[in-house]
Amino acid sequence: MIKITALSRNKRLFIFAFIIAVVIYLFTVPVSAALMPSDQLQTSVEGEIDAINSAYGQCRALLRISPFSSGYSAVEGAVSIVQGTALVLVSLFFVIEFFVKTLQFEWVKWENVLLLMAKLFVGKALIDNTPAIMQTVYDAFMDLQNAVTLNNSNQILTGGMGMFISDLQWQTAVADDPNVFGTYSLIRNIQLSPVFLILKLCMLACQVVIIGRIFELMIYTVIAPLPMSTFISSAANDVGKTFVKSYAAVCLQAFILVVMFTVYGDVMVTVRDAVMSYAGSMGTAADGSMEALLLTGALGMGVLKSGSWAKKICGTA
Predict the structure, then answer these.
(1) What is the pLDDT of residue 253?
(2) What is d(CA 20, CA 82) in angstroms, rounded to the nearest whole number?
(3) Average model confidence (pLDDT) across the chain
């Protein structure tokens, strides 16, 4: 019985000490007593902005990867192997063409035979120079990309937090810091979390499409000698023509993507400035979160459709 009384007394002493500690804490609370101080909100938002800027810059950097770079020795080796196979196809197409023509008695003239032999030599020269021809097509579209991106920045969310936290919202967050258990910054951070998540997912989807295009361009470059070998065949030369248009479409897709990313960056900066100006002049808590989501969503949709647009332009869709 005595032990129980002592235990109860200890519990009461513990509860009393806990209440005293809470009271002391409440009356000696530091300046930043909020659950999430405004400086942490700023750090969080700026970190997300840096991540999105980095993803945007990576997208634009990926668009400049060339299959003709000296770093891709495997591609060069694969092209050499495919060229050997393409020369066999050229010889086969020549033999087929020769037998088909010789069956036409009115065709057997020395001029026509000479033209057929010339076609054989042209086919071999075409195969030997296929990498140079493909690089010429690629460089032509790269020149267009360079002209578009000459004065464009790789940063889309420059200027700090103004796109996502207005001046009034920031002032409210700072004013909420001394409040005990202040929640404004925490709630604002929670509100922005899905926005930043969607923005990063859109950028990730863009990167996936761009990397897929890189693989497509690499494969087209490696196998180019095979369809190019069909140019000497009267019956199969449409394959070569279609391939050239398809290769041009893949290169054109990069140019379309560069134009979209460039326009996206310019519009994003314009919207940010407009939102900050409106919020400052009207004294409202308006921010550009929804605008950023809409623009980035539109960019993602455009990136997904860029391949089909390029094929339609080149007449291969």
Answers:
(1) 93
(2) 83
(3) 80
DSSP state letter for 160? G
* H-only helix segments in the chain: 2-27, 38-62, 73-102, 110-128, 130-148, 167-176, 184-223, 225-228, 237-282, 289-314
Angle at 22 between CA 17 and CA 24, to 5 degrees: 95
Six token digits for residue 305: 């459709």
Return the structure tokens found at 190.
Answer: 């929670």
Residue 63: φ, ψ to 5°: -70, -10
pLDDT in tens, 90-110: 888 888 877 777 666 555 666
CB 264 within 8 A of CB 156: yes
- List the structure tokens of 197: 């998540």
Whole-angstrom CA distances from 2 to 5, 13, 17, 104, 116 are 5, 17, 23, 124, 118
Query: Measured between alpha carbons, how far is 127 from 219 in angstroms, rounded to an integer?
Result: 16
Around Cβ 100, how many Cβ atoms within 10 Å? Answer: 13
The encoded tokens of residue 114 equal 């000479």
Residue pLDDT, tens place only, 144-171 = 888 877 555 555 655 557 778 877 788 8
What local confidence, expressed as pLDDT, does residue 31 receive?
A: 42
What does the alpha-carbon distance between residue 265 and residue 259 come to, in Å, rounded to a whole number?
Answer: 10
Amino acid at 39: D
Q: Round to whole Å and give the CA distance between 180 and 288.
A: 30
